[in-house]
Amino acid sequence: MLTISVILFATTIAIAVIRIILGPSMPDRVIALDMIGVNLIASIAVISILLKTKAFLEVILILGILSFIGTIAFSKFTERGVIVERKRDR
């Protein structure tokens, strides 16, 4: 059952990559990237269960944080066109 779930997670990641390439708009691509992050975290968790190790738990935490920050950055870029706004004194 765990092996089948890893295969299904890999399939959904492949579908999300297709959505990133063919996505009609930037928000669709952002959602696909977020979906890849969530499915990657879940598949690493299942692989950790399959291998009966806790070594991947830190990887899951780091990947979750990076996925969240990436989603926020892409959302700000989609909304405003820039990620970090700088005020210039003239």
Summarize the topology.
Blueprint: H1 2-22, H2 26-51, H3 57-80
Helix pairs in contact: 1-2, 2-3
* Count of helical stretches: 3
Terminal Cα separation, in Å? Answer: 63 Å
N to C succession of SSEs: HHH
Structural class assignment? mainly alpha
Portion in strands:
under 5%
Overall geometry: flat
Number of strands: 0
Low-confidence stretches: none
Helix content: over 70%
Average pLDDT number:
88
Largest sheet: none
Radius of gyration from CA coordinates: 17 Å
Notes on the protein architecture:
The protein is mainly alpha-helical and 90 residues long. Helix content is 79%, strand content 0%. It has helices spanning 2-22, 26-51, 57-80. The model has no long low-confidence stretch (mean pLDDT 88). The chain crosses the membrane at residues 6-23, 30-50, 56-78. It is a multi-pass membrane protein. It is found in: Cell membrane. Keywords: Antiport, Cell membrane, Ion transport, Membrane, Transmembrane, Transmembrane helix, Transport.
Task: Spell out the key features of this protein.
mainly alpha; 3 helices; 90 residues
Sum this structure up briefly.
By secondary structure, the chain is an all-alpha fold.
